[in-house]
């Protein structure tokens, strides 16, 4: 028997059409105490998703950090996220790289794989094909370093799984616009 | 050469340099150095409240009635956490506040020291911005920056958390220079292309409506003047949110009354049926829109707001204009002037004919009584007997707040101080204290409920100490009336914990606090009692005993669109009007 459908929220304007997109936002901020907490708190407080988050200082003298956030939501929600970020006082600039197009995204991952015999050979062959580097090796294990687009890292990890994947550490996405102009 | 002084002295000096005359506060261990500095000076008047929530609301009342920044000074730990409700209230209603909090010395931060709390962590979500000042070198800049951030762009509360050792430290003070903030630069002028598009739509509109909010008032009195000029120029009907009341005079011929959940029939139907909506300094809050997917379905929407995140947040907008209301209104008027733009008189006459049909429903009417004071009647009489006086009205939150908005008619901006966004019971009396201090010779009345007033009742002591002649006009129906109304609507009249049990004798309570207490329950004696209240030059607590079961109508039930209101001439009980989905909403 069919269960009765939950009544749609009377406040909702997007009844029945949920169109989730994934966007990469590049956020230039003053590197001051608490700035990351402000950004992360904004996402949790307003119920936005964070799929990936990367933050590091990018200009020491100017105290600037770049936060790269991969988020998902409806196009309206993504637009709102950008405006909400711009409201935070220590934020210089918010760029939606997905909306802008023409951007490069990279992620670095360390992948630990354990195995013997044929599995070791296969792991090395695949690593070679993906241009992953061996950065640690023992008789029964490798740690690979792989840099690339998220999909490539995902794919490599999936290939390592049956071979003897032990663990993964990923940096999250760093991104930048193409061409001569700054992001 | 820069003057050398302690951090505590810098705080007081910076307040003086920012033109602050009055601050609200409560001392404690972590702010003693600042209090010691206050002791040695007379430039700044410190008003001692009885609870830090009261300090925040008083600062809000001061700010909202005067257009200046409200300032409060509280200690670390509980001092800061008690202020959180008021800070959140100011954030929701865009009220400029600077809140200075003491903090334990820097070397004790993180050690769970006595009266330590993570003030910047706790207030991050309820302020526009906040600072923890770890070194004396940063203090002067941060203090002046706090005032800049609080009052520029969309106003809001800013916390400056100052550890005690920084208050004792000695450093060079610098005054408020023209601030060129490196990141925070709000956009003030509207995009001329958007202005031109907006004017073109306004010229063609057949069924337009202006929907204005608190942003017009926050933008300053000039915005209200320009708004009136725009209404005169276009002949468009105008409605306003709770926060925007007074920007356009209630006696104006184009005025439709407040809109939204307890707005008038004509305002809500005009919003629903319009072909062009011009939202100015308003934010499409859920109390305004009702059911979103049925909100004004046939209209183009122009939205003017200083905060880009307001545009397209809840409702899809056709023309978004980011800018300060004063400047954008002037740009619109200039464009009308420059292009000699005319609106459509024939279509507008038709539209007004329709509006007059809606007006004829008299949606604010109620059944009068000779036996018992109707709460609406009490507000109407208060209005009639204070009309023409220099009056400021504050409210608490609930039915009385909506009756005040419906039946007290505001002619000027900054005259109605109420907690709109957060809906904070306890707001009204401290806000009245703040408004009275900003306007010592004006009449300040807190239209209150008997439940709300008890939430900050301790501030009666503040009013007594400073001999503030505020009037607390309590519509006492012995219920948390709005809760009771919703229980009638949604829960078959099961009045779970909404009866005000064990109420104090308010007259004796007022007397115990050194105020003048009075009570009235007879409609025939009401006028004389209100006049007595107005003419008594002291703090007056008026216990106005009203009908216990009156509902606040008209009402858009939750989950319904604007054109499905409950009107006061409803025959049956209001229970059963709301469907299952609507019951999920607040």
Describe this structure in words.
The complex is a heterodimer of chains A (about 180) and B (about 575). Chain A has about 180 residues and is an alpha+beta fold. Chain A is built from five helices and eight strands, in the order E-H-E-E-H-E-H-E-H-E-E-H-E. Chain A folds into two domains: about 20-100, ACT domain (Alpha-Beta Plaits, 2-Layer Sandwich); about 105-175, ACT-like. Chain A, domain 2 (Alpha-Beta Plaits, 2-Layer Sandwich). Chain A starts with 20 loop residues before the first strand and ends in a 6-residue tail after the last strand. The mean pLDDT of chain B is about 95. Helix content of chain B is about 35%, strand content about 15%. Chain B folds into three domains: about 5-175, 3-Layer(aba) Sandwich (Rossmann fold); about 190-360, TPP-binding domain (Rossmann fold, 3-Layer(aba) Sandwich); about 375-545, Rossmann fold, CATH 3.40.50.970. In chain B, the strands form four sheets. In chain B, strands 3-2-4-5-7-6 form a six-stranded parallel β-sheet, sandwiched between helices. Classes of the chains: A alpha+beta (about 180), B alpha/beta (about 575). The interface of A and B includes residues 10, 34, 90, 91 and 92 of A.
Search tags:
heterodimer; A: 183 residues; alpha+beta; Alpha-Beta Plaits; four-stranded antiparallel β-sheet; 5 helices; 8 strands; disordered N terminus; B: 586 residues; alpha/beta; Rossmann fold; 3 domains; six-stranded parallel β-sheet; 22 helices; 37% helix; 17% strand
CATH superfamily of the largest domain in chain A: ACT domain
Please name the CATH architecture of the largest domain in chain A. Answer: 2-Layer Sandwich
CATH class of the largest domain in chain A: Alpha Beta
The overall pLDDT average of chain B reads: 96
The percent range for strand residues of chain A is 35-45%
The total number of structural domains of chain A is 2
């Amino acid at each position: 028997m069919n269960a009765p459908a939950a009544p749609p929220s009377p406040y909702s304007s997007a009844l029945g059409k949920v169109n989730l997109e994934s966007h990469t936002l590049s956020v230039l901020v003053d590197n001051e105490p608490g700035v990351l907490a402000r950004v992360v708190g904004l996402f949790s407080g307003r119920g936005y998703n964070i799929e990936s988050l990367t933050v590091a200082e990018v200009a020491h003298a100017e105290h600037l950090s770049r936060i790269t956030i991969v988020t998902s939501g409806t196009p309206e929600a993504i637009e709102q996220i950008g405006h909400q970020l711009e409201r935070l006082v220590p934020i210089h600039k918010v760029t939606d790289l997905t909306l802008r197009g023409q951007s490069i995204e990279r992620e670095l991952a360390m992948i630990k794989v354990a195995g013997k015999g044929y599995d070791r050979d296969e792991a090395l062959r695949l690593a070679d094909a993906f241009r992953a580097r061996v950065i640690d090796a023992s008789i029964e294990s490798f740690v690979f370093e792989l840099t690339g687009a998220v999909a490539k890292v995902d794919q490599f990890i999936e290939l390592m799984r049956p071979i003897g994947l032990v663990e993964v550490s990923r940096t999250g996405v760093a991104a930048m616009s193409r061409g001569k102009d700054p992001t | 050469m820069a003057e050398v002084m302690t951090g505590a002295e810098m705080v007081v000096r910076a307040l003086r340099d920012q033109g602050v005359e009055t601050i609200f506060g409560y001392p404690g261990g972590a702010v003693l150095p600042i209090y010691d500095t206050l002791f040695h000076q007379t430039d700044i008047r410190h008003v001692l409240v009885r609870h830090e929530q009261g300090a925040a609301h008083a600062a809000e009342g001061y700010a909202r009635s005067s257009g200046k920044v409200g300032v409060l000074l509280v200690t670390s730990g509980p001092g800061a956490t008690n202020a959180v409700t008021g800070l959140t209230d100011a954030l929701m209603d865009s009220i400029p506040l600077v809140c200075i909090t003491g903090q334990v010395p820097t070397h004790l931060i993180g050690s769970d020291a006595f009266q330590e709390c993570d003030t910047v962590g706790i207030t991050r979500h309820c302020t526009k911005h906040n600072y923890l000042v770890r070194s004396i070198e940063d203090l002067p800049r941060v203090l002046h920056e706090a005032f800049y951030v609080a009052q520029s762009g969309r106003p809001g509360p800013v916390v400056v958390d100052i550890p005690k050792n920084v208050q004792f430290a000695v450093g060079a003070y610098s005054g408020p220079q023209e601030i060129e903030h490196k990141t925070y630069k709000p956009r003030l002028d509207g995009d001329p292309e958007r202005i031109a598009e907006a004017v073109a739509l306004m010229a063609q509109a057949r069924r337009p409506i202006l929907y204005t909010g608190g942003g017009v008032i926050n933008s300053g009195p000039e915005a209200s003047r320009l708004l009136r000029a725009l209404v005169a120029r276009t002949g468009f009907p105008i409605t306003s949110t709770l926060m925007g009341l007074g920007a356009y005079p209630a006696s104006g011929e184009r005025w439709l009354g407040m809109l939204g959940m307890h707005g008038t029939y004509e305002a809500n139907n005009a919003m629903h049926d319009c072909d062009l909506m011009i939202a100015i300094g308003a934010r499409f809050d859920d109390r305004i829109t009702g059911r979103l997917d049925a909100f004004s379905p046939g209209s183009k929407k122009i939205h003017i707001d200083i905060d880009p995140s307001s545009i397209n947040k809840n409702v899809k907008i056709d023309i978004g204009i980011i800018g300060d209301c004063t400047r954008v209104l002037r740009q619109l008027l200039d464009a009308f002037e420059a292009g000699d733009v005319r609106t459509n008189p024939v279509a507008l006459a038709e539209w007004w004919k329709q509006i007059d049909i809606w007006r004829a429903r008299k949606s604010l009417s109620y059944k009068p009584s000779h036996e018992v004071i109707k709460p609406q009647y009490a507000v109407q009489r208060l209005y009639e007997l204070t009309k023409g006086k220099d009056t400021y009205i504050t409210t608490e939150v609930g039915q009385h707040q909506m009756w005040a908005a419906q039946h007290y008619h505001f002619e000027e901006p900054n005259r109605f101080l109420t907690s709109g966004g957060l809906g904070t019971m306890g707001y009204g009396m401290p806000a009245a204290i703040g408004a009275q201090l900003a306007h010592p010779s004006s009449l300040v009345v807190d239209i209150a409920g008997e439940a709300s007033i008890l939430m900050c009742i301790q501030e009666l002591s503040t009013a007594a100490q400073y001999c503030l002649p505020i009037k607390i006009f309590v519509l006492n129906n012995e219920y948390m009336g709005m809760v009771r109304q919703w229980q009638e609507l949604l829960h078959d009249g099961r009045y779970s914990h909404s009866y005000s049990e064990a109420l104090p004798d308010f007259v004796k309570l007022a007397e115990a606090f050194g105020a003048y207490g009075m009570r009235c329950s007879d409609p025939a004696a009401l006028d004389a009692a209100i006049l007595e209240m107005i003419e008594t030059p002291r703090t007056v607590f008026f216990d106005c005993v009203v009908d216990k079961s009156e509902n606040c109508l008209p009402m858009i039930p939750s989950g319904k669109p604007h054109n499905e209101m409950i009107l006061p001439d409803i025959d049956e009980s209001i229970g059963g009007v709301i469907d299952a989905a609507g019951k999920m909403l607040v």
